[in-house]
Amino acid sequence: MDWNEKDIGIALSAKEYVDTAIIPLVPITWGEEAKVAVKSGEFISLFSKAMEHKYKGRILLLPPFTYLVHEEVVSKKERLRAWEEVLKKEGLKHVFYLTSDHLNKEMEKEVEGTVIWLPALPLAMMDEKTQQELLHAQIDEVMTLLKKEWE
């Protein structure tokens, strides 16, 4: 289920089936680090969207959780915990964070959800068919992690 009015209406009427939230973690900055941050965010956004499309009906894709590249870790953790609290309270059993920022993997001890790190692939340099093939190959790998949580 995607974050739009139609899908949310369906998800709310079928809460017993939609039990997993996917939250893309997207860095924001300007200046020297902007290209790396944009590449990371673009990849995670495309990956998350492809994952939601493939597993529609079980996964709720939330809007990206954006953070400043140099944001205090404590601030980021507190904001993520607030998201988790609301989602768990509303019945979502599983929360997965998707990121290409290796520093976010360290936060896994601080949040209830699972942080999944993926290397940002240079999608801008690939044709659409190659992009889709790579995304789907990685989705299959990530799904083994999700399926373990679902058991």
Q: What is the makeup of the main sheet?
A: 5 strands, parallel
Mean pLDDT: 90
CATH fold-level name: Rossmann fold
The top level CATH class name: Alpha Beta
Structural class: alpha/beta
Report the uncertain regions: none
Shape, principal axes of CA atoms: globular
**Approximate helicity band:** 40-55%
Rounded to the nearest angstrom, the radius of gyration is 15 Å
Indicate how many domains the architecture comprises: 1
**What is the CATH architecture annotation?**
3-Layer(aba) Sandwich
Q: In sequence order, what are the helices and strands, one letter per element?
A: HEHEEHEHEH
Oligomer state of the chains in this structure: single chain
Beta-strand percentage range:
15-25%
The termini sit apart by 21 Å
Give the helix tally. 5
β-strand number: 5
Provide keyphrases for this structure.
alpha/beta, Rossmann fold, five-stranded parallel sheet
